[in-house]
Amino acid sequence: MPALSPRALAIPPSPTLDLDTQAKALKAQGLDVVNLSIGEPDYPTPANVCQAAIEAIKEGFTRYTPTAGIGPLREAISQKLKKDNNLDYAPESVVVAAGGKHALYNAFMCLCQPGDEVIIPSPHWVTYPAQSTMVGAIPVLAPTDPETLLLTPEGLKKALSPRSRVLVLNSPSNPSGRAYGANDLEKLAPLIKAKDLWVISDDIYENLIYDGLTFVNLPMVCPELKDQTVICHGVSKTYSMTGWRIGWLAGPKIVAQAAANLQGHMTSNASSVAQRAALAALTGPSDEALRFRAGFNQRRLRILELLAKIPGFQTPTPNGAFYVFPKVSQLLGRELGGAMIHSADDLARVILEKTLVATTPGTGFGAPDRLRLSYAVDLSNLEKALNRIASLVAGRPVVL
Ligand SMILES: Cc1ncc(COP(=O)(O)O)c(C=O)c1O
Q1: Average pLDDT, the chain
Q2: How confident is residue 16, by pLDDT bands cut at 50, 70 and 90?
Q3: For residue 207, how far is its CA from the centre of ligand 1 (angstroms)?
Q4: Which mutation among 19, 101, 235, 267 tests ligand 1's pocket best, with the greatest number of atoms within 8 A of CB?
Q5: Nearest residue to 230 via CA among 390, 346, 104
């Protein structure tokens, strides 16, 4: 058989999906698995959104749409950017894609030349280095503040080189759940400006923010950087619409045009029916989305409370998304459930084997001394999972 392309071979499987697959396989055997490894809201998509899709199908709205998305949806995204972020993006500056991931890929394709460096504050979401590599660029991990896990000017300076081209900012962050404040972004702005970097602002968790914090992104705080920023976003997390696959990018018109051209030869439009659903999500009542956020917040507080009682888990309080990201270094080098734990990978494996709780080791996120636990599960499952982990760590029998 002829060889595959080096480009294809350089793409690692997603470690988060790996764990999810293992958990699903155990579940398929009839075991009572609690899956805290996946980044997917468990709430159903709001009824008005589903209804809009049903109506679209009944109307026969099942054909190609304009590549960059239907006019009303691009308009609705433009209005959302004005209303929520006070940012002016004309509909022509918005391109609707098949999910936030697709929008990010379009952005990387449009902004990077082969050999360019993409600066990724780490801990980081696994897809940023993979997508950078996919477009021929070189991912460069930038160290973050050890306490806040946010990028500082010092961390950015360490990652900069003459080949730096793009900086990725993700707030609230997957995996840390930490959100940038205006102050944090203001401090980064002079370097971004001086080095003439593109910024990809991944705002997918914008609406999942707690503790009375207000979401901010770079162009909101530093309008002079709007022309070098591309916002990537979508409906997946806010409206519990992961399967519908609608995301978008918003940026300078020249970027939007390039992304639309690219999409025109790659995927064409995102699903026509899902676009109508996303339109209903963005223009309809927001009470469901608010209810989801309140639910996540309640779970966040509960998981923090339960983790605080488990020795060896040092958990900073996240203020966004739906992940906690405890340090587990105190458990490394110890025996747990009859096995030696040398790494977060060992820990996640033993937790899954002995307690049937799936978590994600921090290794793939650039934090080998941490575990990521998603709290996108209902309270009773969350409590069950944490009680099982507490028993394992305490050396008590685990009740399954
Ligand atoms: C940080 C981050 N960005 C973007 C996405 C993409 O979301 P989707 O492609 O489902 O819209 C995800 C999904 O897990 C994410 O965690």
Answers
A1: 96
A2: low
A3: 13
A4: 101
A5: 104
Residue 204 Cβ contacting ligand 1 at under 6 Å: yes
Coarse DSSP helix, strand, coil percentages of the chain, rounded to the nearest 5 percent: 45, 15, 40
The residue nearest atom 14 of ligand 1, judged by CA position, is 39
Burial 164-184 (b: 16+ CB within 10 A, else e): bbbbbbbbbbbbbbbbbbeeb
Cα separation, 179 vs 241, in Å, equals: 22
pLDDT at 14: 74
Check if the beta carbon of residue 323 is closer than 8 Å to that of residue 174: yes
Residue 28, token pair as written in the block: 């398929």
Of 225, 230, 210, 219, residue with least CA distance to 182 = 219
Q: Say if strands 34-35 and 198-202 run parallel, antiparallel, or are unpaired.
A: unpaired
Tell me the β-bridge partners of 327.
314, 370
Please name each of the domains of the chain with its CATH number: 6-44+288-394 (3.90.1150.10), 47-283 (3.40.640.10)
Condensed to tens digits (0 to 9), the pLDDT of residues 151-163 reads: 999 999 999 999 9
**For the whole model, what pTM was predicted?**
0.96
Cis peptide before 172 (omega within 30 of 0): yes
Average of per-residue pLDDT across 207-222: 97
From ligand 1's centre to the CA of 101, what distance in Å?
Answer: 6
From 379, 367, 377, 369, select the one nearest 306 (Cα to Cα): 379
Provide the token pair at 371.
């575990």
pLDDT value, residue 299? 98
Query: Is the shortest distance between the CB of 174 and ligand 1 below 6 Å?
Result: yes
Q: Which atom of ligand 1 is nearest to the CA of 102?
A: 9
| Residue 242 DSSP one-character state | G
> What is the mean pLDDT of the segment spanning 251-256?
98
Query: Residue 73 — pLDDT band, cuts 50, 70, 90?
Result: very high
